[in-house]
UniProtKB/TrEMBL annotation:
<dbReference type="Pfam" id="PF00725">
    <property type="entry name" value="3HCDH"/>
</dbReference>
<feature type="domain" description="3-hydroxyacyl-CoA dehydrogenase C-terminal">
    <location>
        <begin position="123"/>
        <end position="209"/>
    </location>
</feature>
<dbReference type="InterPro" id="IPR013328">
    <property type="entry name" value="6PGD_dom2"/>
</dbReference>
<dbReference type="GO" id="GO:0016616">
    <property type="term" value="F:oxidoreductase activity, acting on the CH-OH group of donors, NAD or NADP as acceptor"/>
</dbReference>
<dbReference type="InterPro" id="IPR008927">
    <property type="entry name" value="6-PGluconate_DH-like_C_sf"/>
</dbReference>
<dbReference type="GO" id="GO:0006631">
    <property type="term" value="P:fatty acid metabolic process"/>
</dbReference>
<dbReference type="InterPro" id="IPR006108">
    <property type="entry name" value="3HC_DH_C"/>
</dbReference>
<protein>
    <recommendedName>
        <fullName>3-hydroxyacyl-CoA dehydrogenase C-terminal domain-containing protein</fullName>
    </recommendedName>
</protein>
Amino acid sequence: MRILITGETSRQEELRSSRDFGSHELIWSPGFVPGTELVIDLSLDEHPERLVLYAAQPDVPVLGCMVKNVYDQPGVYGCNWLPGFLGMPRLEVAATPSADLAKLDALMQQLGWLYETVAATPGLVTPRVVCMIINEAYFTAAEGTATRDDIDISMKLGTNYPAGPFEWSRKIGIRHVYEVLQAVHACTGNERYRACSMLQEEYTANKKSAELGTDPSY
Protein backbone atom coordinates (compact mmCIF):
# COMPACT_ATOMS: atom_id res chain seq x y z
CA MET A 1 0.00 0.00 0.00
CA ARG A 2 1.25 3.49 -0.90
CA ILE A 3 0.88 5.72 2.13
CA LEU A 4 1.19 9.49 1.90
CA ILE A 5 2.27 11.11 5.18
CA THR A 6 1.89 14.84 5.53
CA GLY A 7 1.94 17.37 8.35
CA GLU A 8 4.26 18.94 10.87
CA THR A 9 7.88 17.82 10.41
CA SER A 10 8.47 17.02 14.08
CA ARG A 11 5.40 14.78 14.13
CA GLN A 12 6.57 13.04 10.96
CA GLU A 13 9.84 12.27 12.71
CA GLU A 14 8.02 10.97 15.79
CA LEU A 15 5.77 8.79 13.64
CA ARG A 16 8.74 7.46 11.67
CA SER A 17 10.52 6.40 14.86
CA SER A 18 7.54 5.03 16.76
CA ARG A 19 5.33 3.10 14.32
CA ASP A 20 6.00 0.02 12.21
CA PHE A 21 4.77 0.29 8.63
CA GLY A 22 6.09 -3.08 7.56
CA SER A 23 6.60 -3.33 3.79
CA HIS A 24 4.21 -0.50 2.92
CA GLU A 25 5.59 2.25 0.68
CA LEU A 26 5.82 5.58 2.50
CA ILE A 27 5.67 8.93 0.71
CA TRP A 28 6.57 11.98 2.79
CA SER A 29 5.07 14.94 0.97
CA PRO A 30 3.24 18.21 1.77
CA GLY A 31 0.89 17.70 -1.20
CA PHE A 32 -1.24 14.92 -2.61
CA VAL A 33 0.59 12.40 -4.79
CA PRO A 34 -1.23 10.43 -7.53
CA GLY A 35 -1.42 6.73 -6.76
CA THR A 36 -1.75 7.29 -3.02
CA GLU A 37 -3.85 4.59 -1.34
CA LEU A 38 -3.92 6.05 2.19
CA VAL A 39 -3.25 9.51 3.61
CA ILE A 40 -1.98 10.11 7.13
CA ASP A 41 -2.44 13.81 7.88
CA LEU A 42 -0.69 14.64 11.14
CA SER A 43 -1.82 18.28 11.14
CA LEU A 44 -5.42 18.18 9.92
CA ASP A 45 -6.60 20.02 13.05
CA GLU A 46 -4.47 22.99 12.06
CA HIS A 47 -5.25 22.74 8.33
CA PRO A 48 -8.94 21.87 7.88
CA GLU A 49 -8.83 23.37 4.38
CA ARG A 50 -7.28 20.07 3.26
CA LEU A 51 -10.69 18.43 3.67
CA VAL A 52 -11.65 19.92 0.30
CA LEU A 53 -8.72 18.10 -1.32
CA TYR A 54 -9.63 14.84 0.40
CA ALA A 55 -13.28 15.17 -0.67
CA ALA A 56 -12.03 15.18 -4.27
CA GLN A 57 -10.34 11.79 -3.63
CA PRO A 58 -13.26 9.82 -2.11
CA ASP A 59 -11.63 6.42 -2.67
CA VAL A 60 -8.53 7.33 -0.63
CA PRO A 61 -9.06 6.97 3.13
CA VAL A 62 -7.54 9.57 5.43
CA LEU A 63 -6.29 9.07 8.99
CA GLY A 64 -6.16 12.70 10.08
CA CYS A 65 -5.36 14.33 13.39
CA MET A 66 -8.76 15.36 14.73
CA VAL A 67 -8.47 16.15 18.43
CA LYS A 68 -9.47 19.82 18.63
CA ASN A 69 -12.23 19.64 16.02
CA VAL A 70 -14.77 17.14 14.73
CA TYR A 71 -15.22 16.78 10.98
CA ASP A 72 -17.78 14.28 9.74
CA GLN A 73 -16.61 13.57 6.21
CA PRO A 74 -16.85 10.14 4.55
CA GLY A 75 -13.48 8.45 4.30
CA VAL A 76 -11.82 10.77 6.83
CA TYR A 77 -11.11 9.14 10.19
CA GLY A 78 -10.15 11.38 13.10
CA CYS A 79 -7.13 10.12 15.03
CA ASN A 80 -5.01 11.18 17.98
CA TRP A 81 -1.87 12.27 16.15
CA LEU A 82 -0.84 14.89 18.71
CA PRO A 83 2.87 15.05 19.62
CA GLY A 84 3.69 12.65 22.42
CA PHE A 85 0.93 10.21 21.49
CA LEU A 86 1.99 8.93 18.07
CA GLY A 87 3.66 5.81 19.45
CA MET A 88 0.81 4.71 21.73
CA PRO A 89 0.09 0.95 21.49
CA ARG A 90 -3.51 1.63 20.41
CA LEU A 91 -4.51 4.37 18.02
CA GLU A 92 -7.61 6.32 19.08
CA VAL A 93 -10.00 6.79 16.16
CA ALA A 94 -13.16 8.91 16.30
CA ALA A 95 -16.34 7.10 15.31
CA THR A 96 -18.14 9.86 13.39
CA PRO A 97 -21.67 9.20 12.03
CA SER A 98 -20.40 8.71 8.47
CA ALA A 99 -17.41 6.55 9.44
CA ASP A 100 -17.35 3.16 7.72
CA LEU A 101 -16.11 1.06 10.63
CA ALA A 102 -15.79 -2.09 8.52
CA LYS A 103 -13.43 -0.29 6.13
CA LEU A 104 -11.55 1.15 9.11
CA ASP A 105 -11.08 -2.31 10.59
CA ALA A 106 -9.84 -3.71 7.28
CA LEU A 107 -7.41 -0.80 6.96
CA MET A 108 -6.04 -1.32 10.47
CA GLN A 109 -5.61 -5.03 9.84
CA GLN A 110 -3.70 -4.22 6.67
CA LEU A 111 -1.44 -1.88 8.65
CA GLY A 112 -1.14 -4.37 11.50
CA TRP A 113 -2.08 -1.73 14.08
CA LEU A 114 -4.17 -1.99 17.22
CA TYR A 115 -6.85 0.67 17.51
CA GLU A 116 -9.83 1.76 19.58
CA THR A 117 -12.88 3.64 18.33
CA VAL A 118 -14.03 6.42 20.66
CA ALA A 119 -16.78 9.03 20.64
CA ALA A 120 -16.26 11.78 18.08
CA THR A 121 -15.96 14.67 20.52
CA PRO A 122 -13.23 17.30 21.00
CA GLY A 123 -10.34 15.90 23.02
CA LEU A 124 -11.18 12.27 22.21
CA VAL A 125 -10.30 10.29 25.38
CA THR A 126 -6.60 10.18 26.21
CA PRO A 127 -5.74 13.76 25.16
CA ARG A 128 -8.74 15.07 27.11
CA VAL A 129 -7.70 13.28 30.30
CA VAL A 130 -4.00 14.11 30.00
CA CYS A 131 -4.66 17.79 29.23
CA MET A 132 -7.05 18.02 32.18
CA ILE A 133 -4.36 16.59 34.48
CA ILE A 134 -1.84 19.08 33.07
CA ASN A 135 -4.29 21.92 33.69
CA GLU A 136 -4.81 20.83 37.30
CA ALA A 137 -1.03 20.71 37.76
CA TYR A 138 -0.78 24.30 36.51
CA PHE A 139 -3.38 25.37 39.09
CA THR A 140 -1.34 23.64 41.82
CA ALA A 141 1.88 25.32 40.67
CA ALA A 142 0.14 28.71 40.45
CA GLU A 143 -1.02 28.36 44.05
CA GLY A 144 2.59 27.79 45.12
CA THR A 145 1.68 24.50 46.76
CA ALA A 146 4.53 22.67 45.02
CA THR A 147 7.16 23.23 42.36
CA ARG A 148 6.76 21.81 38.87
CA ASP A 149 9.50 19.26 39.47
CA ASP A 150 7.87 18.17 42.73
CA ILE A 151 4.51 17.76 40.99
CA ASP A 152 6.09 15.66 38.23
CA ILE A 153 7.93 13.46 40.73
CA SER A 154 4.91 12.96 42.99
CA MET A 155 2.65 12.06 40.07
CA LYS A 156 5.10 9.48 38.74
CA LEU A 157 5.69 7.94 42.17
CA GLY A 158 2.08 8.09 43.32
CA THR A 159 0.35 6.90 40.15
CA ASN A 160 3.12 5.07 38.29
CA TYR A 161 2.53 7.37 35.29
CA PRO A 162 5.38 7.28 32.73
CA ALA A 163 5.66 11.09 32.86
CA GLY A 164 4.59 13.91 35.12
CA PRO A 165 2.09 16.55 33.93
CA PHE A 166 4.71 19.17 33.10
CA GLU A 167 6.82 16.59 31.30
CA TRP A 168 3.70 15.67 29.32
CA SER A 169 3.08 19.33 28.59
CA ARG A 170 6.54 19.67 27.07
CA LYS A 171 6.06 16.54 24.95
CA ILE A 172 2.67 17.60 23.64
CA GLY A 173 3.45 21.31 23.39
CA ILE A 174 1.72 24.07 25.32
CA ARG A 175 -0.14 25.18 22.19
CA HIS A 176 -1.84 21.83 21.77
CA VAL A 177 -2.59 21.47 25.48
CA TYR A 178 -4.24 24.89 25.61
CA GLU A 179 -6.18 24.44 22.37
CA VAL A 180 -7.47 21.00 23.40
CA LEU A 181 -8.66 22.45 26.71
CA GLN A 182 -10.34 25.33 24.89
CA ALA A 183 -12.10 22.95 22.51
CA VAL A 184 -13.32 20.62 25.25
CA HIS A 185 -14.47 23.53 27.45
CA ALA A 186 -16.37 25.07 24.54
CA CYS A 187 -18.04 21.72 23.83
CA THR A 188 -18.90 20.70 27.40
CA GLY A 189 -19.02 23.93 29.39
CA ASN A 190 -17.30 21.98 32.18
CA GLU A 191 -15.13 24.31 34.28
CA ARG A 192 -12.59 21.53 34.81
CA TYR A 193 -11.40 22.27 31.29
CA ARG A 194 -11.11 26.04 31.65
CA ALA A 195 -7.41 26.73 31.14
CA CYS A 196 -5.46 27.93 34.17
CA SER A 197 -4.35 31.56 33.78
CA MET A 198 -0.69 30.50 34.14
CA LEU A 199 -1.09 28.01 31.30
CA GLN A 200 -2.86 30.62 29.18
CA GLU A 201 -0.06 33.13 29.80
CA GLU A 202 2.55 30.59 28.63
CA TYR A 203 0.46 29.84 25.56
CA THR A 204 0.18 33.54 24.72
CA ALA A 205 3.91 34.11 25.27
CA ASN A 206 4.82 31.12 23.08
CA LYS A 207 2.43 32.27 20.38
CA LYS A 208 3.99 35.74 20.37
CA SER A 209 7.50 34.22 20.20
CA ALA A 210 6.40 32.07 17.26
CA GLU A 211 5.04 35.12 15.44
CA LEU A 212 8.39 36.83 15.98
CA GLY A 213 10.21 33.73 14.75
CA THR A 214 11.98 33.05 18.05
CA ASP A 215 10.01 29.91 18.93
CA PRO A 216 9.72 27.62 15.89
CA SER A 217 8.39 24.79 18.10
CA TYR A 218 5.04 26.54 18.64
